[in-house]
Amino acid sequence: MIRSITDVDVRGKKILTRVDFNVPQDDERRITDDTRISESLPTIESIVSRGGIPVLMSHLGRPNGKRNEKYSLNPVAERLADLTHKEVLFAPDCIGKEVEDLVRSAAPNQIILLENLRFHAGEEGNDSAFCKQLRMLGDVYCNDAFGTAHRAHSSTSGVAALFDTVCAGLLMLKELQYLGSALEKPQRPFISVLGGSKISGKIEVISSLLGKCDAILIGGGMMYTFLKAMGKEIGTSLVEEDRIDTAKTLLDSARALGVNLAVPADAVVADAFSNDAQTQIVDVDHIPQNWMGMDIGPSTVETYSSMIANAGTVVWNGPMGVFEMPNFSHGTRAIASAMAESTRKGAITIIGGGDSAAAISQFGLSTSVTHVSTGGGASLEYLEGKTLPGVAALNK
Ligand code: AMP
């Protein structure tokens, strides 16, 4: 049973809280999207409004265990102060005497943000000495960083074991609630839409979802490995030769289980990997030599859209085509619109983070679906049925 931050008496206590402030920045280190900060505000406000003091910790980028100002969380501290209208004390490091003194002297209504955890190799190493130092900075441990819950790092796993009271933040609970109920008691029909570049990263999720879904709709670069497994010519499309047998096995398992593992019937093909390339729409039995598949075709869009629009639950991970190029974004856009329509009709629709979250935001439809997960890798591992270390650490 995971305890919620709202069930913990936080008054006068320091709440060491793992958040995911790994925000995108431009070359001048200006934050280009502060969704991750705003998503953690309910937890921060829950602590502050009840007289607790949040001691926030996060990573940013990949400084590889060394201090590097390029990855400082300083710009995040400023944005957090703007968003919360509170005083944010930015600690010069995430461990050490100076930080401990700062935490000790903090008063209610203040928020502390520690410097980037990954300035120390002990963070990703889940190092016990580093965990002990982090332990000094709070009375209660809270994890609100679903996006890093699939990593067994000091701040997501090791340090939690050192606390008597551990709990989940509101964002973490929201993620677990939506993903958990989709898997455990989905409204049917339950449909998964899986795309993205490669089949290799999605084999386990496809295998796991085959036992749970009524249909799995395949798109993106990985559809061509399936088409090849079905004996079709795929021109110069993306293919993983070493996964053709796996694709065959997945198609056979789907047949045996009576699950519809749907592979597109048509594709938009191009004569080069470029937005300005020549294009044509072909059915998948006629992909010309030297042409590559860049998007799902209109007939597939129609079939998939009507299945999605009539679903009870839809989980989507991975774009249907090279959506970053406008000429090959139509399939992904159509799926996003179908998800929105399905939501309007009462379905539970979940976007599994990463590129699909970027796509739905690009199309302005993020608020038209039930839930957009903040964790690409974490949501995929959750859907695979794996226990996430950061979640397991909260089960005390
Ligand atoms: P992933 O990281 O595996 O989820 O893949 C996302 C990437 O897949 C995006 O950058 C898309 O551009 C890419 N992608 C989608 N469809 C195709 C395709 N048909 N050929 C090559 N790349 C694709």
Strands in their spatial order, largest beta sheet: 3-4-2-1-5-6
CATH-defined topology of the largest domain: Rossmann fold
Distance between the termini: 7 Å
Largest sheet, if any? 6 strands, parallel
Question: Are there runs of 5+ residues with pLDDT below 50, and where?
Answer: none
What share of the residues lie within helices? 25-40%
Summary tags:
Rossmann fold; elongated; 15 helices; alpha/beta; six-stranded parallel beta sheet; 15 strands; 396 residues; single chain; binds adenosine monophosphate; 2 domains
Describe the overall structure.
- The chain has helices at 35-39, 41-49, 74-84, 97-105, 121-124, 128-135, 170-184, 203-210, 223-229, 244-257, 298-309, 330-344, 354-362, 376-383, 389-392, and strands at residues 14-18, 53-57, 87-90, 110-113, 140-143, 166-168, 190-194, 215-218, 260-262, 266-270, 279-283, 292-296, 313-317, 348-351, 371-372.
- The protein has 396 residues and is an alpha/beta fold.
- The protein has 2 domains: 5-173, Rossmann fold (3-Layer(aba) Sandwich); 186-383, Rossmann fold.
- The chain has a 6-stranded parallel sheet with strand order 3-4-2-1-5-6.
- Adenosine monophosphate (AMP) binds at residues 196-198, 201, 220-221, 238, 293-294, 318-319, 321-322, 324, 354-355.
